[in-house]
Amino acid sequence: MLRVEEHSPQEVALNGALGTSKAGGHSLSQAHRPKERKSPMDAPESILAQPYDDRQLLVVADEIRPPEKAPEPSELFGVNKSIWEVAAAVIPVVLSPGAGLAALAVQRLISWNEERARRATEEGVHIRSVTRADIQGLLFPPGHPRRKVVYVGHPSLKRQYIPFASFHRALFEQKAIEAMELLAGLGATSIKIRQVAGTATSASIAASLGVPIQGVTVDVGSDVGKQASQNSEILLSATLAPTQAPRVPDGLIWYPHERTWQGVAKMRLKNGLETYALEVDYKDDYGINAKVSAKIADIGFDIGGSCSNIESTKWIMQGEFAPLHTLPPLHPGDNER
User: Fold this and answer.
1) Cα–Cα dist 46/59, whole Å
2) Alpha carbon distance 68, 65 (integer Å)
3) More confident residue, 45 or 333
4) What pLDDT, in 10s, does the model give residues 289-323?
5) 187 pLDDT higher than 80
6) Among positive and negative, which fits the CA dihedral 320, 324, 325, 326?
7) Half-sphere exposure of 313 (CA within 13 A, CB side)
8) How confident is the model at residue 88 (pLDDT cuts 50, 70, 90)?
9) DSSP letter for each residue of 121-177
10) Distance CA 128, CA 61 (A)
């Protein structure tokens, strides 16, 4: 994931140029400016301090460079603009043409985003329009954020934002990998994954899971694709060679919410469980669905690709653990988890 780069002093100056330039030491009178209207789309001082519902969907204003030529007046001002709105925009351009025009371009895009965010709210979809200055410290995939793309906040990792189209795939993939890390940490010697409910898209995720996990050696089996039962297919078969003491790995984000996972870990660490069947399911769409996707497209925003249809998916991971006496002793406190 990439951290958003800090603004340069020049970019900061451009963001503040509109309506703040001075002539002879005097700024445009606040009394003569139209009052700024607060709206639900106004970016907060800290996005992360907001409830999840208020910050779940974001769209980020593009990074703007000074325009090569001055825009036409018809491009800058709508026919219904008041004289004070026009004056607030024109005066900085006259006093400082380069900075003023760049600031106008920035403001134009921000206004475009905010107008569509307002339309989305009217359609029942709350999208927060923010600038790049508002998202310092948030995490996006490589090459993001991009213009007009709507991003969804991770429900557990507050700083992480995912393109709308990739949201469900990313979450389910993350959950499946965490389940494998848990089983590997507990000393699994074999893992077979069966899909008992889901789509071809969710089944394809298994191809990305046959990778080495820290502390074990993984050998992906050749029985992938065989029918495990009448209603399921083996998606992945792996043989592991654990060398570390069984433990619940640190930093798991799904584990605290999965009672069956906790039960398997407890039976393994306290009672030496040697066979297991772990359920990995994905049922909650978090309000990210085809209906919302269609509204976003109608408004003029982008979801960042084709939606991954993997809702209502269930995998079963089953296999065997190494006998406890063949592994190093448990770490103190591990069997208390």
Assistant:
1) 15
2) 9
3) 333
4) 999 999 999 999 999 988 766 668 999 999 999 99
5) yes
6) positive
7) 27
8) low
9) HHTT---EEE-GGGGTT-EE-TT-S-TTBEEEE-SS-TTBEEEGGGHHHHHHHHHHH
10) 11
Residue 233 pairs in a beta bridge with 195, 227
- Distance CA(1)–CA(139), nearest Å, equals 6
The crossing angle, in degrees rounded to 10, of helices 97-122 and 290-299 is: 140
Question: Does the pLDDT of residue 204 top 80, yes or no?
Answer: yes
The H-assigned helical ranges of the chain are 9-15, 52-55, 73-76, 83-95, 97-122, 167-185, 200-204, 259-271, 290-299
Residue type, 239: T
288's CB contacts (< 8 A; 6+ apart) are: 152, 164, 167, 168
With cut-offs at 50, 70 and 90, classify the pLDDT of residue 241. very high
**pLDDT higher than threshold 50 for residue 38:** no
Cis peptide before 332 (omega within 30 of 0): no
Residue 109 DSSP SS3: helix
pTM, entire model: 0.69
Neighbours of 144 (CB within 10 A): 17
Start-to-end C-alpha separation, the chain: 30
Residues 6+ apart with CB under 8 A from 209: 173, 176, 177, 180, 193, 236
d(CA 127, CA 199): 29
